[in-house]
Amino acid sequence: MEKGVVYPGSFDPVTLGHLDLIKQALTIFDRVIVAVADNSGKKPAFSRKERIRILKELTEGMPGVEVDYFSGLLVNYLRKKKVNIILRGLRAVSDFDYEFQMVLTNRRLAPEVETIFLMPQEDYFFLSSSLVKELAELGADLSTFVPANVEKELKAKLGRK
Ligand code: ADP
Question: Fewest C-beta atoms under 10 Å: which of 31, 39, 41, 145?
């Protein structure tokens, strides 16, 4: 039977760390659903539509990857997609507390759902979308952090004019 996983996140913007995780997930799962969170609490640099478009452009050549979005409870989205595994990335220890809390919360809400974690290559271990946004504002070279088209679009939005 086909095994799928949902990889949820803000992806504001998608980084090489996210793409590394998607590639790793494809070696384990037949179907990787990258689900852009519609978190109204955060003020994103890229709209949901833009984040979806960029993710689609970058995963076009990766069979098995779908790009979608969700709002509301993640476990409800999983039920809708008939998938019972969540994929998250685990970087430096700072991710642990929050992720552990989310696993326990989701388990309470939906006992059939499991969360798995993958670790990125060491080059991306400290990489985050927020770091990338700060660097873009300061005009730094982002070529080792994000794909070229993301750097271009981000700098057009945030970079110094
Ligand atoms: P969220 O707001 O849900 O944390 P992010 O887009 O920041 O959204 O991250 C989505 C997922 O991708 C999270 O599980 C996060 O740990 C993971 N992730 C983010 N950056 C990296 C990276 N550099 N390497 C591996 N995983 C990452």
Answer: 41
Pocket of ligand 1 contains residue 59 by CB under 6 Å: no
Is 62 contained in some domain? yes
Atom of ligand 1 nearest to the CA of 42: 2
φ/ψ (deg, to 5) at 8 = -90, 155
Is residue 13 scored above 60 in pLDDT? yes
Active-site residue (options: 10, 18, 51, 133): 18
The CATH number of residue 63's host domain is: 3.40.50.620
72-102 pLDDT, tens digit per residue, is: 999 999 999 999 999 999 998 888 999 999 9
Q: Is 53 a catalytic residue?
A: no
**Of 83, 62, 102, nearest to 2 (Cα)?**
83
Q: Are 127 and 17 in contact (CB under 8 A)?
A: yes
Q: Let me know if residue 111 belongs to a domain.
A: yes
19: domain range?
4-122
In this prediction the pTM is 0.95
For residue 40, the model assigns a pLDDT of 64
